Amino acid sequence: MNRIKNITRMPRNSESTNETDMHADACRLIANSNKPPDTISEKENSWNAGVQMFVSFLLAGYGMVAASLLLDKVQHWDVFRIVSEVYILVPALLGLKGNLEMTLASRLSTHAHLGHIDSNLGALVVGNLCLIQCQAVLVGFLAAMAAVAMGWIPDGQFDIHHAMLLCASSVLTASFASLVLGLIMIGVIVLSKHMDINPDNVATPIAASLGDLTTLALLSWIASLLHKSIGSSIILPTLIITGGLVLVPVCGYIAYKNKFTRQALDEGWVPVVSAMVISSAGGLILDYTVSNYTGIAVFQLVINGIGGNMVAVHASRLSTSLHTGQKEDTVLSNTTKLLLVMVIPSQLIFIHTIEYLKAGHTSLTPIFILIYMSAALLQVFLLLTISHYMVVGMWKLGMDPDNSAIPYLTALGDLLGTALLGIAFHILYAIGDKDSDLGD
Fold first, then answer.
1. Per-residue pLDDT reduced to its tens digit, 389-407
2. What's the chain's Rg over C-alpha atoms?
3. What is the DSSP code string of 332-363?
4. What is the pLDDT of residue 378?
5. Is the pTM of this model over 0.85?
6. Residue 397: DSSP 8-state
7. How far apart (Å, rounded) are the C-alpha atoms in residues 16 and 247?
8. Mean pLDDT score, 360-379
9. Number of other CB atoms surrounding residue 290 within 10 Å
10. Which residues neighbour 51 within 8 Å (Cβ) at sequence distance 6 or greater?
11. Other beta carbons within 10 Å of 156
12. pLDDT tens digits for 65-78?
């Protein structure tokens, strides 16, 4: 009865929640009150949770490394050399698509704990695939428009063929990536449920890892194919863009009619757009730090990637605890300790990987490691604290944190990580720790 009691007491916001829908949801939960309790949470202990999280962080980190290596390879393709605006599209599309996939993972993890995966898998699959298809196509179109504007304004020259290529590539990439990643995430959640693995511990890092690699691979391949085939014609990209824009209302209507995705459709837009604004502030800081401290960029990927994955897991677990009626203080304490403990080994593994690959051209001196680790620990501590108050605050306002929290938190992770890393390098330069490789 804890599950029924928890949902029926959920704070109500007259502007965002319909009383009839809530009453119907409560009735459905009462009708299904004979379901067994959540076995995943009952069987989980700190050791199991720590192992599951650490393994997923490693997979996510190496996925990030793989994406970086892929970008290093495809940058020599003709489409990247001739249509340079594709470079602008890469971080925007990867960041926005990552937010969509991670919120999907968090949402499905909560459904797994509530037992909806067992009883309503078909409705969850259809509703969520349509939801992320609708969101992804619009996000892809907006990202392309931003890339066109940022590429056109500095030069003052607008090329319609380049603009159509960017829009068509972005829309098609977003659509395909959402379908592929959505199916993969559903498979991960279902498999985790059957293996008694807590999906909150593994789903969001896997989503982040596969999201970057899959989206970059698809964008590079699709943009290259379109660049070779369209020539000076805009007919094919026009058809692709039109098809995507037609798909949006169709998928949006299906998602709106689905009881599991209606709230997400209403609440999911503002966080994604706000995350773009926050990330843009981080981009301005990155532009300043890169120009002053050469060699910092590769460490920015690591500190932001690990911090974002950790806060996403924290938010996902805390949201699930609120949905299932667990004590949020216990979740906060145990999860926060586990994640803070894992910061040091996770960071050490990846900065040594960078050194081994000679990607950062920075010697890992003891003072460098000390100051870098201090920045990473402070970033994660601040993110976990913000995550707690944000997720609980959204819940009290009648919002579902699974739909809204992660885009804000990952964007804040980028902002804090970039700023703290810049401060760390400033301190290193100030104290004279500039060995022959630092910043080379």
1. 999 999 998 888 888 898 8
2. 22
3. HHHHHHHHHHHHHHHHHHHHHHHHHHT-S---
4. 95
5. no
6. T
7. 26
8. 84
9. 15
10. none
11. 6
12. 777 778 777 877 88
Q: Give the position of tokens 């890339």.
A: 147
CA-to-CA distance for 241 and 247, rounded, in angstroms?
10
- The rounded distance, in Å, linking the Cα atoms of 163 and 223 is 12
CA angle (179 as vertex; 176, 183 as ends), nearest 5: 145
Tokens of 221: 């391949």
Please state, in angstroms and rounded to a whole number, the distance separating the CA atoms of residues 431 and 440. Answer: 17
Identity of residue 137 = V
∠ CA(361), CA(278), CA(57), 5° rounding? 55
Query: How far is 40 from 111, CA to CA, in rounded Å?
Result: 12
Q: Chain-wide mean pLDDT for the chain?
A: 78
Collect all residues with Cβ–Cβ distance below 8 Å to 260 and sequence separation of at least 6.
Answer: 111, 116, 120, 123, 124, 127, 128
Rounded CA separation 101/206 (Å): 9
d(CA 402, CA 399): 9
Between 245 and 89, residue with greater pLDDT: 245
User: Are the C-beta atoms of 175 and 244 separated by less than 8 Å?
Assistant: yes
Output the pLDDT for position 257: 92
User: Cβ-count burial of 160 within 10 angstroms (0-12 exposed, 13-18 middle, 19+ buried)?
Assistant: exposed
Is the per-residue pLDDT at 198 higher than 90?
no
Report how far apart, in Å, the C-alpha atoms of 342 and of each of 149, 153, 182 are. 41, 44, 28
Residue pair 200/48 in contact (Cβ under 8 Å)? The answer is: no
Residue 223: closest CA among 166, 158, 180:
166
* Percent of the chain surpassing pLDDT 90: 14
Distance CA(188)–CA(178), nearest Å, equals 15
Q: What is the mean pLDDT of residues 237-261?
A: 91
Of 3-17, 125-139, 244-258, 376-390, the range with the lowest mean pLDDT is: 3-17
Label residue 287 by pLDDT band (50, 70, 90): low
Rounded Cα–Cα distance for residues 292 and 34 (Å): 62
